[in-house]
Every structure is written in structure tokens, then in C-alpha cells.
Design brief:
The chain is an alpha+beta fold. The protein has a single domain (about 5-85), classed as Glutaredoxin. The chain is built from three helices and four strands, in the order βαβαββα. It has helices at about 10-30, 40-50, 75-85; strands at about 5, 30-35, 60-65, 70. The protein has a four-stranded mixed sheet with strand order 2-1-3-4, sandwiched between helices. A hairpin with a 5-residue loop joins β3 and β4 (about 70). The chain is globular and about 30 Å long.
Length: about 90
């Protein structure tokens, strides 16, 4: 499974992470599935299933291979390091 990104459409932190996600996909070829959770109850539940109370907000990133997550806004270097873990 790919990496998961959970975001809110109007979230300023999520907006700032978007270019980093696009750069990650372009530079590494990694698959990232994105789910908007503020306006979609199904995606909100999906995030809760992965989050398990760790973050409780967006942006929330989950690596389905390692089970590791990122909560909040991070640097590109941190995002890339997290995504590269297998």
C-alpha cells in the first residue's frame, strides 16, 4: 500500500504541505493517496482508523508499510526520510 495523506481543504498547514507532497511524488516516484477529511465523513473515519488518537488533526500522514506517522507540518527532508522507510 502507498503512503496516506489526510488533509483539510481550508487548513493552512495542509496547504503548505501540498507542494512538498507533489515534489516527493515527482522526485521519488512514491505513491501518495490523499484524503480530504473536513468535508467527507468516510475519509474522516478512514483517518481515525489509521490515527488511533495519535494526532487527532491534519495534516496527518501515515506510512502503510512501516506504521509510522507524521502529525502536522514538517520539512521536505523529514517527509522524504519518512516516506523512504520500508
Amino acid at each position: 500500500m502507498p503512503l496516506l495523506e489526510f488533509y483539510g481543504r481550508e487548513c493552512p498547514h495542509c496547504t503548505r504541505m501540498k507542494p512538498l507532497i507533489e515534489r516527493l511524488k515527482k522526485e521519488t516516484g512514491v505513491a501518495v493517496e490523499s484524503y480530504e477529511v473536513w468535508h467527507d465523513d468516510v475519509n474522516q473515519q478512514r483517518m481515525q482508523d489509521y490515527d488511533k488518537g495519535i494526532c487527532g488533526g491534519v495534516p496527518f500522514f501515515f506510512n502503510t508499510e512501516t506504521g509510522e506517522s507524521i502529525c502536522g507540518e514538517v520539512s521536505y527532508e523529514e517527509l522524504k526520510k519518512w516516506a523512504a522507510k520500508k
